[in-house]
Write a structure and sequence with these properties.
Layout: E1 12-17, H1 24-37, E2 41-44, H2 61-71, E3 76-79, H3 90-103, E4 108-112, H4 117-120, H5 130-148, E5 153-156, E6 161-165, E7 177-180, H6 184-193, E8 196-199, H7 205-215, E9 220-227, H8 232-242, H9 259-265, H10 271-277, E10 279-280, H11 284-296, E11 301-305, H12 311-316, H13 323-327, H14 348-362, H15 366-369
Parallel strand pairs: 1-2, 1-11, 2-3, 3-4, 4-7, 7-8, 8-9, 9-10, 9-11
Antiparallel strand pairs: 5-6
Helix pairs in contact: 1-2, 1-14, 2-3, 3-5, 6-7, 8-10
Length: 372
């Protein structure tokens, strides 16, 4: 079997920090746990509202990233993804992302996307049609790059105005901007204007369109939804309870403004529907097969996206003792075409003190931690 694997590829595995279902301090802890366990990168979602009220959380991602920056040393982190068009003007996103990049030198990347009404309608602006959202995103990236160049800048565009703006705190190296893409047209835009692409579909058509439009040689990030539990039935039940939106199809999810609307639409979603979209259960081979689908499609970074509340197992048993060690990411036998990530410089003593400190915090009553 080893003789058939002659091509060398560097496939990195990451972990998704789900803002929709985690309190701020939990997200910081899970970033630490991911780093301690050898994941090389993480994506953190940027929402004003969760998809459903059951998920129950949506902290301001830029504050959380400040906490992650102070509590991690090696983990690369990116937003997955931020919409820099309506809820937040691209000039503000440019300042926020530059600040985090200064706190995490060579460890932060900005993931951007065209957004959802769920998060963006809150400021009262008209929610534009899909084609216009893509045009707005393209111009927003132009503004981001302009301000990241430094110096006093102005921009007079179709959608955005910037007058005499200067970002004073910039990272030494240019901040990478990756773009979320669903479908070939979005992938072509990402190929033209972004430094990489983020995608939740393992179909090879999207990476092909991305590469043809100028993305050849740029990183490709895939996200696979998983739910880890002691039994497959438990995992399916949890995923259906907290993430029924996983079973919804079509673009309408991007058009509705309230979590309650998603919940109403999801009433027709059955557990089996969710199980088709989320890898459920404790069998590591099934999770590896899902990751392999992205690798076959050409993705060089694959991030597990674990609904719902599955990170509890990461806390109670330690991330390295459950999800990640079962995948055996470091093992050359498991991933012979990919070099192992560098060994963690974090000592076992530091890991133990981290877990002890967070154990006390995690077990505190909810009102003492954060009111939901």
């Amino acid at each position: 079997m080893a003789a058939t694997r002659t091509r060398t590829r560097n496939v990195q595995l990451g972990y998704t920090l789900s803002s929709e279902e985690r309190l701020p301090h939990e997200l910081v802890y899970l970033a630490q746990a991911a780093e301690d366990s050898g994941f090389t990168f993480a994506l953190i979602s940027d929402h004003f509202h969760p998809w459903t009220d059951k998920q129950g959380s949506a902290p301001f991602v830029w504050s959380v990233l400040g906490g992650i920056a102070t509590q991690t040393k090696q983990l690369r982190v990116g937003t997955g993804v931020t919409c820099p068009t309506i809820r937040m003007h691209p000039a503000i996103v440019a300042q926020a992302s530059a600040t985090v990049a200064c706190l995490m030198p060579d460890r932060f990347f900005l993931g951007v996307g065209s957004g959802e009404s769920l998060n963006e309608h809150i400021t009262g602006q008209l929610w534009p049609p899909p084609d216009m959202r893509q045009d707005m995103l393209e111009e927003a990236v132009e503004v981001l790059r302009l301000l990241h160049e430094g110096g006093e800048r102005s921009h007079h565009g179709r959608f955005f105005e910037v007058h005499d703006a200067r970002i004073y705190n910039l990272p030494e190296k240019p901040l990478p901007i990756y773009m979320a893409a669903a479908g070939e047209q979005a992938a072509k835009l990402a190929g033209r204007v972004a430094d990489g692409m983020i995608c939740t579909d393992p179909s090879p058509d999207t990476p092909t369109a991305f590469k043809a439009a100028g993305g050849k040689g740029k990183p490709l990030y895939g996200q696979v939804a998983v739910c880890w539990a002691k039994t497959e039935a438990d995992a399916v039940r949890m995923a259906h309870e907290v993430w029924p939106n996983a079973g919804l199809h079509g673009r309408f999810k991007n058009e509705v403004p309230r979590p309650s609307h998603i919940e109403e639409a999801a009433r027709a979603v059955r557990p089996d529907d969710v199980a088709k979209e989320v890898v459920c259960g404790p069998d590591p081979e099934r999770h590896l097969e899902a990751i392999a689908e992205f690798v076959k499609a050409g993705f060089d970074h694959v991030c597990s996206t674990p609904p719902p509340k599955c990170g509890k197992v990461l806390h109670t048993n330690g991330l390295s003792l459950d999800y990640r060690s079962s995948l055996n990411v470091r093992s050359p036998a498991r991933w012979p075409d990919s070099p192992s990530p560098p060994p963690s410089s974090i000592s076992a003593r530091t890991r133990r003190s981290r877990r002890a400190a967070h154990s006390a915090c995690w077990s505190a009553p909810s009102p003492a931690r954060c009111r939901r």
